[in-house]
Write a structure and sequence with these properties.
By secondary structure, the chain is mainly beta. It is about 5% helix and about 30% strand. The chain has 3 helices and 23 strands. The strands form 5 sheets. The chain has a 6-stranded parallel sheet, with no helix packed on it. Strands 1-2-3-6-5 form a 5-stranded mixed sheet, with no helix packed on it. A hairpin with a 4-residue loop joins strand 2 and strand 3. The longest helix is centred in the first third of the chain and has 8 residues. The chain is elongated, with a radius of gyration of 24 Å.
């Protein structure tokens, strides 16, 4: 940021000794910033004199010279930083760039703050980061709409929580997160995309919230340790092979008052023969006379 621009904004209080030719414009609470716009009062996190270490908490806004800036960008500031162990991203940051956290070999916890605006995530934002804990507080949008691999595959991700700002899970959202064993889905979730949890081989069970209306193809395929899955009250459609190769599955709980739409490829013979379908009291007749739901060998009312 040029000295002439800064001086126009802060001429009343600007220090006599200028440091505006440094890599950063100002520092607050151990975080370094560059000013993006003095019209919009926005700034971004950048590198400074002292390397970032441990858990880094980025605020929504920061004060400098009695002015308040919104923090809207982190660029690739943390790429190849081997000393940060966690990061909190405020809801004012709306985009994570390509290789944003590449090479962060100690990064094991990420918290994406709750909010209404989606976070756009470019490919490989967390490449090589050994994440274990993740909180997602709003919808994630991928730049590659047909993404076939998860941003988190290859990580050590074991625990995922989500805030009420999350309304949909992308295709392949957690695909092949083989260590994932605990997932908390928000009540406001409405859709689970194709292969969202495919290959999550350590996931023992999942409770789908009542507001989810659609679950796409292979959403939970190859979840080898999954023993039980519960579908919420308002589910209207299940995609194909949704539970394929879930070899430990023995219970499917369906709380729906109206049996969701399924076709001949939604379930395999294994589910029909070995899994117990548990439904609400008084609903047996509806399921036993509704298309492919009639193929379940064992149906119980709760």
């Amino acid at each position: 940021m040029g000295r002439n621009i800064i001086s126009k904004l802060f001429w009343k209080t600007a220090p006599q000794k200028s440091t505006y030719n440094a890599k950063y414009d100002f520092e607050a609470d151990g975080i370094y910033y560059n000013i993006i716009s003095i019209d919009d009062m926005t700034c971004k996190v950048t590198l400074g004199e002292v390397p970032y270490t441990g858990m880094v908490v980025i605020p929504q806004e920061v004060k400098y010279q009695d002015k308040t800036f919104n923090v809207t960008d982190i660029s690739n500031t943390f790429a190849h930083n081997r000393k940060i162990t966690g990061i909190v991203l405020p809801n004012t940051i709306t985009r994570l760039k390509l290789f944003c956290f590449v090479g962060c070999y100690s990064l094991d916890e990420v918290k994406i703050a709750d909010g209404d605006k989606p976070l756009v995530m470019e490919n490989d934002a967390f490449c090589n980061a050994p994440l274990q804990k993740l909180h997602i507080g709003r919808d994630i949008a991928y730049t590659d709409r047909e993404a076939s691999d998860s941003q988190f595959s290859g990580s050590l991700l074991s625990t995922v929580t989500m805030g009420e700002g999350v309304t949909a899970l992308n295709n392949a959202m957690f695909k092949n997160c083989t260590y994932l064993s605990s997932v908390t889905l928000p009540r406001g979730l409405k859709k689970i995309g194709r292969s969202a949890f495919k290959g999550c081989k350590s996931l023992p069970e999942l409770d789908i919230p009542d507001n989810v209306t659609e679950i796409e193809d292979e959403a939970f395929a190859n979840c080898e340790k999954m023993k039980q899955i519960t579908f919420g009250e308002n589910l209207s459609r299940l995609g194909r092979n949704v539970l394929k190769d879930c070899t430990s599955l023995d219970t499917i709980v369906c709380r729906c008052l109206q049996p969701p739409y399924i076709d001949e490829e939604t379930f395999t013979n294994r589910e029909y023969v070995k899994a117990t379908l548990r439904i609400k009291s008084g609903m047996t007749e509806r399921y036993k006379t509704n298309g492919y739901w009639t193929k379940f060998w064992k149906t119980e009312e709760e």
